[in-house]
Amino acid sequence: MNCAKxxxxxxxxxxxxxxxxxxxxxxxxxxxxxxxxxxxxxxxxINSIFNLISQPQGKIEFExxxxxxxxxxxxxxxxxxxxxxxxxxxxxxxxxxxxxxxFIQNLYEKPIEEMLEExxxxxxxxxxxxxxxxxxxxxxxxxxxxxxxxxLVNYFETxxxxxxxxKLREFIFSPELATAITEKLKEIRSTLSENIKTPxxxxxxxxxxxxxxxxxxxxFDLNTMxxxxxxxxxxxxxxxxxxxxxxxxxxxxxxxxxSRYELFKEWEIFKDAYPELFDxxxxxxxxxxxxKSIKNFLxxxxxxxxxxxxxxxxxxxxxxxxxxxxxxRLRDGLRKKGxxxxxxxxxxxxxxxxxxxxxxxxxNRKLLIHIPFQKTEVQSNPTSSQNKSGVELQVDQGLIHxxxxxxxxxxxxxxxxxxxxxxxxIGQEELFDKKFDPKSxxxxxxxxxxxxxxxxxxxxxxxxxxxxxxxxxxxEIRRLQKSKNEYEQRCLELKVDYKRKYKWNRIRxxxxxxxxxxxxxxxxxxxxxxxxxxxxxxxxxxxKINVEDLGWSAYKKKKDAGNYLAFWRVQWFFSQLxxxxxxxxKIHGLEFERVRADYSSQECSKCAEMxxxxxxxxKGKTFICTNHPKPFIIDSDLNAxxxxxxxxxxxxxNIYASQNAVS
Length: 663
Known about the structure:
alpha+beta
């Protein structure tokens, strides 16, 4: 090993001398020659060592497995005897230590030497058979398998854990430490209210599991009796029961003085004076009374002594725990000069409202109870006479005008007659700049168009362009969606989580705000349009509203339904308007019907009035039918609105009877 190190050191010095400048060449050559001689000397020593070690060794061959086992057992037995003798000498020597290196070397001296010589001779034979320039590195710089530090750390952790587990009871659960811990816990418990502050809640709502809060069977005590007396609207028992509270006090005081005969006599008089009280309402009352039972009855009646006797209380029960009703009293009314006022709960119940499940709320250091009320109103359905001679309202939904409304009087003509004076085109101007006047039945300007002289003029205020606003919001949504998708793709290419980036979250917030604005405007348009339709129907005494069913656009391809219709129908447009009008019809007692809408903008309403199905030509907002002596020209949306009247199920001798949609 030392020879190889010297050879490598001399060669490094030679390379350094050759790299020096030419001024010191002579001195460098002399040293290089000296170093080369030393290298040759070291190689001679290495060859001499190789010659000593690499002596020819004989090979042993075995014909059978039994011969090999016999030879193996003889060698192993010799090693066992040597090992046993060394162990005996080790334990017989009291001064010997387990870390005695000399003893360990003597213990394994013979087997180790033999194995080293064998392996060294094999390595030398391999070098001589395959010589190369990495011989010295391979011989004198061997590589060993390194132990991973993670496994070593895990080994120590498990050993430490087992050691701590075995010593845990001894370390922690000692009597002295246990007493100290218990004393400390007692000290913390005694000072718990001082160290921990009471939590303060701004608002705390408790939803109570209450199924039948007002059907609780209360005990009939004096408080309930006084409550019933004060809240007696009909005045049946008020006069009799008002004296009960004075009589019961005087009667209970005279019980000790009266004899047995006098007591029963007074009791019968008292019971006959208040028959409504003793009709079974008090469960503890029994017809067979003794002196002791009468005294116990009077003693168990809880006399109320409330400083504010002018307040009225409403009893109710809450079911906070399953199968356990807890009674409460709610201060509701007030008695002033013998009159009851501010009795809100009973007034609501008399109007037909039914209280539902209450809710407790803790707010501003006060416990509030909220009792919602519900009332079911009977819908006024139109009679059969109204159905035959009433007015029907048709609504056609469009893109330029949100709704085109026509009215048809069924009492005139075979198919009824349309009212040309009551034709309404509901667009963005009518929704946001005008209003429907129920007195005149016309659409007039809103109050914001009033001038200084009090007259309404269109020049006084700027008109609303809600469609332009919707288009701008939609463009902004597309721009934000595009930038969001591009940013996500860049982050995915860089293998970055885009959800944690500020820019992505900012774009997402802006996008959600735009969608909220768009949905709010759309819902506002639906609300205003529905208000117009119901107001016109009530003004015209219409009993039915026919609306074209544009749900078919969801089941058609985009090229057939149109890009605008296919997109806006998804957002809000026709379907939400239909559902909103249907809801308002149920509230106002009107009938509602969805009418088949296909080809409504191509078929002629005047031909349908004559019982003929004929298709005309449409150019933008104009509809032309040449099936007449004089061409019939009309607004296309108005023609479609009129056509809905003939497709309705209530139209007599309906030419579309086989094609009607189910309402």
